[in-house]
């Protein structure tokens, strides 16, 4: 007989949660990212020539000097693409290379393949392109005025907002311009394409959606999808930026690879990445809210204009999600929420952790801060008053918020963070401190979990058990640092009852799991973990069946616990048992599948249940501001967050902290800037500032809310990727609170987003001016 | 051109002058643990630890390899992440990062590991413990987009525990006697390639300049190399002035502090720590630890950026700049006369900055530096004020108000200075007149860092802040460090009362 493999050693690590599966590879530099893969001697490198006009017809293109540049091997324009040049993820309009028309500065017009990236970059500058410029729309306000949208407007309504607004005792009408955010994944966009012997191609992509890269590569090459293989082992960060917009790199590299019969790498240097790829949408939100003298919201009318950029990309879902989260944690009895998909001649904005949600949540929290000042109450009291609770439990789109997690969680954090005492202390501090002012805010988040595109709510897995008892699982999800591979391995180990170390998660490949959804919407573990669980249970069922027959035992006499197979009164090691099953011809491989139950949203009626459940959390932030300059420090943050029954608390806490800081960065130091030609001026980390270690508070605690998911999610856990990003809003609200303190909280001054020192300084000035202009009279400015 | 890469002695004369250390490791050696995150020295994913002999001792410091020419590291010991773990045993920095879940996507991780390893090694040598400020300082040039830093800071704080709980790990430095010996012999007979010259004294420098009149000068290269990595410019011959002994002087003579042009920010930061705390505080706000280890004072001034931070400081002290001509002759120019226009200076084509002379008397007078930027660490100023008040008998006898970010060049507010000079220190009317004057003489612009209006408001407010400080009023200026408990409880600095 052929030899079966030897068993492998399992080290004792009991009681400890598994660390990130790549942690040791990360710290030793052994983890391989695409740019680290060995290069073939004939490998070519890509750079693209970019539009310098925001909106223009191309009159002529002369690429002679580009072609003649030393090292240049190939230059292509749109006409050289063998298949369809459209690389849009959902609709149309995103072109691999522009034709005779451009609609943003930074749009690729031609691509160069050269023997080095440096030669390619030097060559593209020699292009001579003549444009006939057209008028450009650069601001979402202009989009609305000109009614220029990438997709139709959608409106959600409940009750009668117009009547309730008219009847409300008090009203606030204002607007809030929310700037976007650069992803700044540390690993820039990259793909390597390697042609195969059949005219097909293998693509190594840094993508959250390998199935889409596969589909689009096939489309630009005019090939069947089955001829394209896409593999993703890991990304150096994604955050949504590699959901749809990674595909164009794979497509460009693939076209050049097949044309030239050699491997081609397309890596965007940081500046190209910051110019050429989409970001978090800006939103221009105008709002009117009606409320009682106690601060209870009676009516809300919100107009939310997303700056989608030049094409639809994923903007439909982004604007929908912004609308679905404009209530955040608060009951709106009468509401009209309209979401506009503003078209601008700027790079097409895309998914970014939270996917529109943060723009709704920030609007909601801004409204709360303003109502609190208007009625002279602590903002936390307004939050609790309006929070979803029994009798006030239906969202504007008709989904019930049927557990009482939100209020309980907020009250638990209120107590554990000593909110009330700190508020007192801060008031006292602000009274006696002339130059420094403190601010405090407790803000909640309620985030809907499921893709709002129903069909994406499916997951697939492929699982093999080998004869030494080792298990290989592959699934449709991608690893971008969030610990998905670790969690799926834990789920498989738990499902089998075996040690975690027996499970190996392989890289994500389109030939193992087909048609997979993007790893997005926080749903990676929910979908792929469930699919892996399904596959594991299928095999475990076969093993049980085999055991019953082979050992003549009852079904309940079979179990696998603590890495041991229990067979009635006997036990057997897992590898030994698997060998036995193999010798008795039991199939040890299975696919697994999952589709999220219960969900559905009727777009026509604007009602339904888009989400399986909500993930919840709250944060208290305290800040101190220097009134001379508007500079500030975040001095304390306490977070309580709901991840259901945590699969891996270390990983979940890492997600919460990281998301919080990313959300804080969005609202503080990270400021996108564009000139009046539509050119992005923040095109490098030298002028776009994400937080550093010095920006996080020394007092920074994160606790997990102790309650299982009431829905049947994988091991009753909850999604964690995106929701805590919105906890960063507590910092913005605390800054607004500090500014309001200058006017004795009788006026909540408008605070720009992001709240840079400059923005905080001018908000303080506004509060100061307001106070000076009031001559001690009681504020009535907020109500009409 | 010779250096030691991890445990290998390398001798290579085939490299372009501007070939970066990052590219060398990744493309020539297959050492891909070191990553390119930005290519501009802003993210730290490419951080390396570099050992150099200083006074017979091996000293390690971090740098951004993406903007460092590999040839500038001749005669040094380059440590990349691949070298830190031995036979499966992790360095305490690595073990601490694993234990505290300090990595998520992992792309920035090798850079953090090297910054932390450098901190650990230096603390071990100095027998110092590591506090939070030290950790944040060490990783000030390392960006992480996943973790939110808390676990990385915790990792940094617990490295010493790792050393005792993991198998005894021999520190990098103590095991490096062999490296030391090798470097000593490299230093004795330095070899340079023809396209990258690294003179060690003025005589060699003069020869190098004479033989290569078209060569470009480079010191730390933290700005020049952006031409190479961001604008894809190829340099021919580079003459590296960072090792010229005469340009490295940093000393106090009878009446003068002399700062050589090739003194790095980190060197001046260490030098100023006890004697010149205000200068030290400003230096700690300039760029990141990695950049400060490479960038030079001369470069900051010669670069002539209107938003550089040292020109206002030097303007506040009326520093004299010693200029050195290629023929060996020198001349002195006062910094107030040095800047002619945007990115234009008095420097002739055949001149370079040799040193700065600062009067000790003026250094002893009241002075403050305020830097305002969107982010505390590693950011370029939106607005910067350097102020010096000479006081005699309650009267302001000499006033300097120097700004960054307020005009096309670093600039003094001369009308405002005049409005205060000769007035009592507590004359608020004079202060208001000075502020009024400022509004007419400063011409800031709006850009992605700040609006013109904010810049002007900052100029005015910071003068008021300085004036309040001069008059003994307690004001607080934030830094990258945590706000102290005394400020948090009272709004006042405890130390000013000590």
From TrEMBL, chain A:
List the SMART domains hit by this protein, alphabetically: Ald_Xan_dh_C
Task: Provide the Aldehyde oxidase/xanthine dehydrogenase a/b hammerhead domain boundaries.
Answer: 28-135
Domain of life the protein comes from: Bacteria
Please give the InterPro entries that the UniProt record associates with this protein: Ald_Oxase/Xan_DH_a/b, Ald_Oxase/Xan_DH_a/b_sf, Ald_Oxase/xanthine_DH-like, AldOxase/xan_DH_MoCoBD1, AldOxase/xan_DH_MoCoBD2, AldOxase/xan_DH_Mopterin-bd_sf, Xanthine_DH_Mopterin-bd_su
Entry EC no(s):
1.17.1.4
Q: Which GO terms describe its molecular function?
A: 2 iron, 2 sulfur cluster binding; iron ion binding; molybdenum ion binding; xanthine dehydrogenase activity
Q: What class of enzyme is it?
A: oxidoreductase
Named cofactor requirement(s): FAD; Mo-molybdopterin cytosine dinucleotide; Mo-molybdopterin; [2Fe-2S] cluster
Give the SUPFAM superfamilies listed for this entry: CO dehydrogenase molybdoprotein N-domain-like, Molybdenum cofactor-binding domain
Per UniProt, the keywords (alphabetical) are: 2Fe-2S, Iron, Iron-sulfur, Metal-binding, Molybdenum, Oxidoreductase
UniProt cross-references to Pfam families, sorted A to Z: Ald_Xan_dh_C (PF01315), MoCoBD_1 (PF02738), MoCoBD_2 (PF20256)
Which PANTHER family does the UniProt entry name for this protein? Answer: ALDEHYDE OXIDASE 1-RELATED, XANTHINE DEHYDROGENASE
In which family does this protein belong, per the annotation?
Belongs to the xanthine dehydrogenase family.
Q: What is this protein called?
A: Xanthine dehydrogenase molybdopterin binding subunit
From TrEMBL, chain B:
Q: Which SMART domains match?
A: CO_deh_flav_C (SM01092)
Domain of life per record: Bacteria
Q: Which residues form the 2Fe-2S ferredoxin-type domain?
A: 1-84
Annotated membrane-spanning segments are none
FAD-binding PCMH-type domain location is: 188-363
Could you tell me which PROSITE patterns the record lists for this protein?
A: 2FE2S_FER_1 (PS00197), 2FE2S_FER_2 (PS51085), FAD_PCMH (PS51387)
Recorded GO MF terms: 2 iron, 2 sulfur cluster binding; FAD binding; iron ion binding; xanthine dehydrogenase activity
Q: Which InterPro entries match?
A: 2Fe-2S-bd (IPR002888), 2Fe-2S-bd_dom_sf (IPR036884), 2Fe-2S_ferredoxin-like_sf (IPR036010), 2Fe-2S_ferredoxin-type (IPR001041), 2Fe2S_fd_BS (IPR006058), Ald_Oxase/xanthine_DH-like (IPR016208), Beta-grasp_dom_sf (IPR012675), CO_DH_flav_C (IPR005107)
Q: Which Pfam families match?
A: CO_deh_flav_C (PF03450), FAD_binding_5 (PF00941), Fer2_2 (PF01799)
Q: Which UniProt keywords apply?
A: FAD, Flavoprotein, Iron, Metal-binding, Oxidoreductase
Enzyme Commission no: 1.17.1.4
Q: Read off the NCBIfam families from this record.
A: xanthine_xdhA
Q: What is this protein called?
A: Xanthine dehydrogenase small subunit
Its taxonomic placement starts with:
Bacteria, Pseudomonadati, Pseudomonadota, Gammaproteobacteria, Oceanospirillales
């Amino acid at each position: 007989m052929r030899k079966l493999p030897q068993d492998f050693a399992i080290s004792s690590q009991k009681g400890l949660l598994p660390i990130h599966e790549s942690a040791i590879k990360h710290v030793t530099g052994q983890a391989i990212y695409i740019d680290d893969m060995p290069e073939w001697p004939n490998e070519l490198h890509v750079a693209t020539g970019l539009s310098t006009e925001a909106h223009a017809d191309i009159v002529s293109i002369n690429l002679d000097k580009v072609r003649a540049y030393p090292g240049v091997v190939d230059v292509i324009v749109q006409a050289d693409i063998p298949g369809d040049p459209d690389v849009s993820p959902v609709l149309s309009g995103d072109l691999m290379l522009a034709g005779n028309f451009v609609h943003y500065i930074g749009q690729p017009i031609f691509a160069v393949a050269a023997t080095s990236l440096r030669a390619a970059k030097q060559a593209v500058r020699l292009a001579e392109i003549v444009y006939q410029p057209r008028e450009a729309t650069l601001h979402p306000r202009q989009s609305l005025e000109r009614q220029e949208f990438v997709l139709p407007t959608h409106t959600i309504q409940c009750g009668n907002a117009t009547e309730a607004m008219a009847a409300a005792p008090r009203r606030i009408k204002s607007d809030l311009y929310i700037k976007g955010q650069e992803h700044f994944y540390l690993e820039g966009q990259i793909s390597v394409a390697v042609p195969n012997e059949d005219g097909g191609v293998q693509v190594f992509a840094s993508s959250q959606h390998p199935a889409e890269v596969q589909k689009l590569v096939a489309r630009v090459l005019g090939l069947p999808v089955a001829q394209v293989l896409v593999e993703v082992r890991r990304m150096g960060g994604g955050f949504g930026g590699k959901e749809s917009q990674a595909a164009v790199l794979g497509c460009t590299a693939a076209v050049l690879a097949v044309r030239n019969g050699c491997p081609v790498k397309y890596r965007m240097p940081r500046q190209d990445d910051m110019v050429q790829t989409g970001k978090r949408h800006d939103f221009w939100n105008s709002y009117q809210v009606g409320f009682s003298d106690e601060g209870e919201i009676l009516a809300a009318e919100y107009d939310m204009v997303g700056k989608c950029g030049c094409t639809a990309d994923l903007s439909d879902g982004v604007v929908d999600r912004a609308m679905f989260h404009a209530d955040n944690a608060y009951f709106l009895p009468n509401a009209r929420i309209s979401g506009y998909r503003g078209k601008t001649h700027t790079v097409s904005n895309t998914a970014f952790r939270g996917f529109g949600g943060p723009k709704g949540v920030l609007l909601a929290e801004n409204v709360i801060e303003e109502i609190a000042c208007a009625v002279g109450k602590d903002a936390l009291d307004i939050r609790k008053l309006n929070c979803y609770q029994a009798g006030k439990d239906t969202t504007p789109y008709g989904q019930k918020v049927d557990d009482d997690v939100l209020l309980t969680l907020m009250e638990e954090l209120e107590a554990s963070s000593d909110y009330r005492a700190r508020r007192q202390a801060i008031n006292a501090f602000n009274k006696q401190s002339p130059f420094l002012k403190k601010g405090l805010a407790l803000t909640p988040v309620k985030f809907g979990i499921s893709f709002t595109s129903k069909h994406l709510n499916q997951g697939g897995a492929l699982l093999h058990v080998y004869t030494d008892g080792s298990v290989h699982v592959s699934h449709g999800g991608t690893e971008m640092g969030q610990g998905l591979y670790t969690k799926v391995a834990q789920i498989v180990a738990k499902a089998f009852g075996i040690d975690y170390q027996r499970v190996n998660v392989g890289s994500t490949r389109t030939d193992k799991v087909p048609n997979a959804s993007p790893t997005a919407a926080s749903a990676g573990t929910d979908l792929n973990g469930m699919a892996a669980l399904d596959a594991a249970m299928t095999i475990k069922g076969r093993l049980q069946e085999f055991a019953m027959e082979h050992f003549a035992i009852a079904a309940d006499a079979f179990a696998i616990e603590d890495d041991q197979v229990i067979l009635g009164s006997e036990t057997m090691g897992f590898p030994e048992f698997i060998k036995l099953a193999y010798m008795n011809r039991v199939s040890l491989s299975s696919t697994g599948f999952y589709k999220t139950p219960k969900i559905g949203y009727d777009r026509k009626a604007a009602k339904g249940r888009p989400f399986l459940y909500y993930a919840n959390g709250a944060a208290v932030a305290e800040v101190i501001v220097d009134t001379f300059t508007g500079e500030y420090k975040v001095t304390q943050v306490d977070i309580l967050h709901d991840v259901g029954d945590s699969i891996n608390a270390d990983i979940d806490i890492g997600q919460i902290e990281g998301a919080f800081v990313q959300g804080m960065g969005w609202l503080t130091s990270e400021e996108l800037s564009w000139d009046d030609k539509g050119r992005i001026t923040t095109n490098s980390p030298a002028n776009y500032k994400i937080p550093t270690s010095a920006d996080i508070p020394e007092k920074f605690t994160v606790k997990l809310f102790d309650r299982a998911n009431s829905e049947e999610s994988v091991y009753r856990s909850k999604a964690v990727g995106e929701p805590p990003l919105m906890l960063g809003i507590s910092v913005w609200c605390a800054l607004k609170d500090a500014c309001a303190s200058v006017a004795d909280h009788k006026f909540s001054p408008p605070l720009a987003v992001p709240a840079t020192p400059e923005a905080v300084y001018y908000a303080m000035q506004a509060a100061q001016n307001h106070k000076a202009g009031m001559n001690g009279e009681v504020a009535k400015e907020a109500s009409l | 051109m010779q250096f030691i890469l991890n445990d290998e002695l390398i001798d290579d004369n085939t490299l372009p002058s501007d070939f970066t250390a990052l590219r060398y490791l990744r493309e020539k050696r297959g050492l891909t643990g070191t990553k390119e995150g930005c290519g501009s020295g802003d993210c730290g994913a490419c951080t390396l630890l570099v050992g150099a002999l200083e006074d017979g001792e091996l000293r390690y410091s971090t740098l951004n390899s993406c903007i460092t020419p590999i040839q500038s590291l001749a005669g040094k010991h380059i440590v990349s992440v691949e070298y830190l773990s031995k036979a499966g045993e992790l360095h305490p920095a690595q073990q601490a990062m694993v234990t505290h879940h300090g990595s998520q996507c992992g792309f920035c991780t090798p850079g953090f590991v090297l910054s932390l390893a450098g901190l650990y090694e230096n603390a071990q040598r100095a027998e110092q413990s590591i506090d939070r400020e030290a950790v944040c300082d060490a990783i000030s040039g390392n960006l992480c987009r996943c973790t939110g830093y808390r676990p990385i800071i915790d990792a940094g704080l617990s490295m010493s525990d790792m050393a005792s709980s993991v198998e005894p790990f021999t520190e990098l430095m103590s095991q490096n006697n062999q490296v030391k010996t090798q470097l000593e012999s490299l230093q004795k007979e330095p070899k340079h390639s023809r396209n990258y010259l690294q003179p060690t004294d003025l005589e060699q420098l003069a020869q190098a300049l004479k033989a290569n009149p078209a060569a470009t000068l480079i010191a730390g290269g933290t700005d020049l190399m952006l031409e190479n990595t961001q604008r894809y410019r190829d340099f021919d011959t580079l003459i590296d002035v960072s090792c010229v002994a005469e340009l490295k002087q940093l000393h106090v003579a009878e009446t003068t502090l002399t700062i050589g042009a090739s003194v790095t920010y980190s060197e001046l930061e260490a030098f100023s720590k006890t004697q010149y705390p205000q200068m030290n505080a400003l230096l700690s706000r300039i760029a990141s630890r990695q950049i400060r280890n490479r960038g030079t004072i001369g470069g900051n001034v010669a670069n002539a950026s209107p938003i550089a931070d040292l020109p206002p400081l030097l303007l506040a002290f009326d520093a004299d700049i010693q200029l050195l001509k290629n023929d060996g002759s020198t001349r002195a120019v006062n910094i107030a006369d040095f800047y002619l226009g945007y990115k234009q200076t008095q420097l002739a084509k055949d001149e370079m900055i040799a040193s700065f002379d600062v009067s000790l008397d003026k250094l002893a007078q009241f002075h403050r530096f305020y830097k305002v930027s969107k982010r505390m660490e590693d950011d370029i100023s939106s607005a910067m004020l350097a102020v010096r008040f000479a006081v005699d008998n309650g009267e302001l006898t000499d006033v300097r108000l120097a700004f960054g970010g307020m005009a096309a060049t670093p600039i003094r507010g001369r009308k405002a200075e005049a409005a205060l000079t000769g007035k009592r220190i507590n004359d608020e009317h004079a202060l208001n007149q000075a502020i009024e004057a400022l509004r007419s003489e400063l011409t800031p612009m709006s850009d992605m860092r700040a609006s013109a209006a904010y810049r002007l408001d900052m100029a005015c407010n910071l003068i008021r802040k300085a004036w309040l400080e001069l008059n003994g009023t307690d004001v607080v200026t934030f830094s990258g460090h945590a706000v102290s408990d005394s400020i948090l409880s009272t709004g006042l600095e405890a130390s000013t009362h000590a």
